[in-house]
Amino acid sequence: MRQSAAAIAIATAASTLLVATYLALGGTSYHASHVADPCAPRAWTSPNGVEQTLQQIALSTADGAGCALGVSREDVVLALASRDDLHHLASSHHLSNATVEDAVRAGLLRAVDDADDAGAIGGTLAGSLRFAAEHLPIGVVLAVLQGASSILGV
Amino acid sequence: MSARGRTVLLGIAIAVTLADSSVVTLALPDILRHYDVSITTVAWVLTVYNLVLAAAAVPAARLSRRNPVRVCATGLVVFAGASLACAFAPSFAVLLAGRGVQALGGAAVVSAALALLFDVSASEARAAHVWASAGILGAALGPAAGGLLTQFAGWEAIFLVQPPLLLASVAALWRFRRTTPAAVDAGRPHLAANLALLFASAALSAALFLLVILLVNGWNLDPATAGIVVTLIPAAAIVSSRISPRIGAPAVRAVTGLILVAGGLAALGLLPHAGWRWTIAPQVLVGAGLGLTVAALTEQALRGRSPQAVHGGWTIASRHGGIVLGLLLLTPLFSAQLMKNETDAKRAGTAILLDSHISPLEKIGAAQDVLRTIDHSGERLPDVRKPLEKRFDGANGAEYRRVSATLQDQLERAVTSAFGPPFLLAATLALIGVAVIAVGRRSATL
């Protein structure tokens, strides 16, 4: 009887010790890295050259669109790869394609305004980007956001 | 042939047939690629075998009461033939059919072998011990053997090595003389012992199945190395089964073992870091628990019950029914968790890149290269350092190195943590087994 109780006690102690050790070493500590709040204001750095400016505008657009749609900037960046990815973002968040496309266009307009206000882009480029955001098909807008500056001839 | 020789050959037959419940675990990724099926579909290679074995065990045991020699011989030949069919299966459907027929043959072999072992040893307790130990050894060594064969000879080799072993076991039946009369009525199965066995097997199936998937798909170990790593479980089981008789009554051994299994599985669910070394201590606990529990519960289920073959059939039904329960409960949980963590890791990875000091010009392109690598990695852990390596020598090289290391760490931790909830659920199944034994003892059935 004593031997039986000892066996169960040893098994319980060994199990508890191992589980406690793994817990102490961070066994449940995995959490995905912090994802930034897209609605938080971000400082406009001084990009060097037109293409870097476009990339910064793309990131700022993602912030604006993400804030408007209630999704992360990262999700929007991943969706900027193509029109299909953008529509996948819409369906996965139960939004219409038009809502997401409009948010991207609005985000781009806001980003261009910010860049223009900061003196980071000239009037011609700002005008071209505003025209793209308001009038061109979403596929072209995405190409611009991916840094395809040649489309605009700049 | 000597009694010892017959015992060894029958033990090999039992070990081979029961190893089949887990032997293809490490071959699943290769089978998946060979037949171009999904991971949920390929899991049926394991499920079908265990399901059919669980369903056929008791009928096969009843059949073997009258003439176990004939039933065993038929089972061996059927199993060997079905193994060849699996090795050369032209389609996934044929492979599954072959697995089902293998299980039918396996049910006949395992059930009849118990009756034959009783004839050989003239001791119910010894027959039950040999029978249970051979089964545990086979089931526990299965993944390792399957991993080595898959790595060095291809997954088909698993099914090609079985027929010679089984046909050699037919020699054990040569001029076999029965010494015990056929019993008339089997009576009721031992409810508590069989139910506890079911939960113990469900938990143990998790230990082997999930651990192997974690090692191969999660941490990119090759099948042979993974096979060697999981050999710790049978090694610990052998050691603990040696000291098992000193511990006390079967119920105490079973409870002790299940607590160890639960502890080991919980620790696997709480791994602090990725890497096979962290699985050593949990595997030792699981293996030690395995060695104590399954044999104790099997012996208890058979003790004082006649004919043993029929009650042995019930234990096989419980064990393999438990494996099916484990696979059906844990696989969807694990798949859903993996998908969720992968999405989180992708988002987190993108955040790391976007927040890095890499030039804005390159950030989006790099993020999309990384995501493409993750998407194309299939069921295996992607190496996200690869798409960034070409940028290591550029102006932002140091930052790319830091980012790629952080990204890889994120992914490894995401994958490892995806296995947490299924392992913890498996630990709970083991504790349910403890509760069943406690209730059984209170009602004096165990």
Break the fold down into its secondary structure elements and pairings.
The complex is a heterodimer of chains A (154) and B (446).
Chain A: H1 2-24, H2 50-69, H3 73-79, H4 83-92, H5 97-117, H6 123-135, H7 138-145
Helix pairs in contact in A: 2-3, 2-5, 3-4, 4-5, 5-6
Chain B: H1 3-19, H2 28-35, H3 39-42, H4 44-63, H5 68-87, H6 92-121, H7 124-153, H8 156-169, H9 191-218, H10 223-229, H11 232-247, H12 250-269, H13 280-302, H14 308-354, H15 360-376, H16 385-389, H17 397-418, H18 420-442
Describe, in short, the structure shown:
The complex is a heterodimer of chains A (154) and B (446). Chain A has 154 residues and is mainly α.
Could you please describe the fold and organization of this structure?
The complex is a heterodimer of chains A (154) and B (446). With 154 residues, chain A is mostly helical. Chain A has seven helices and no strands. Chain A has helices at residues 2-24, 50-69, 73-79, 83-92, 97-117, 123-135, 138-145. The N and C termini of chain A lie far apart (87 Å). Mean pLDDT of chain A is 79; it is low at 148-154. Chain B is an all-alpha fold and 446 residues long. In chain B, helix 6 (92-121) runs antiparallel to helix 7 (124-153) and helix 7 packs antiparallel against helix 13 (280-302). The radius of gyration of chain B is 24 Å and the shape is elongated. The two termini of chain B are 38 Å apart. The interface between A and B is large, with 44 and 53 residues.
Quantity of strands of chain A, as a count: 0
Q: Which parts of chain A are unreliable, with pLDDT below 50 for 5 consecutive residues or more?
A: 148-154
* N-to-C SSE string of chain A, H for helix and E for strand: HHHHHHH
How would you classify the helix and strand content of chain B by structural class? mainly alpha
**How far apart are the first and last residues' alpha carbons of chain B, in Å?**
38 Å
The greatest interface here is: A-B, 44 and 53 residues
> Helix share of residues of chain A?
55-70%
Assign an overall shape of chain B. Answer: elongated
Number of helices of chain B: 18
The major sheet of chain A is characterized as: none
